[in-house]
Amino acid sequence: MRASYKKLWKLLIDRDMKKTDLAELANVSVATLTKLSKCENVNVDILVRICSALECEMGDIMELVGNDIEEQAGKGR
Hints:
57% helix, 2 strands, globular, 77 residues, 8% strand, mainly alpha, 434 Repressor (Amino-terminal Domain), 5 helices, two-stranded antiparallel sheet
């Protein structure tokens, strides 16, 4: 399984915010937001800061999705 942050990007669109606005509001680097956009690992503290800044829950900005390779391997069993 991996984390997907599509919900975060949709939330920013709904709130008419840019990634740079979020970076400033949540005190995170633009490089960290780039990691999120690539679904790379980030520290949970970063996610907590984002949730605090946006006044939302973790489930509002991310979800766990299946890993395509693992899913395909499981189908062959």
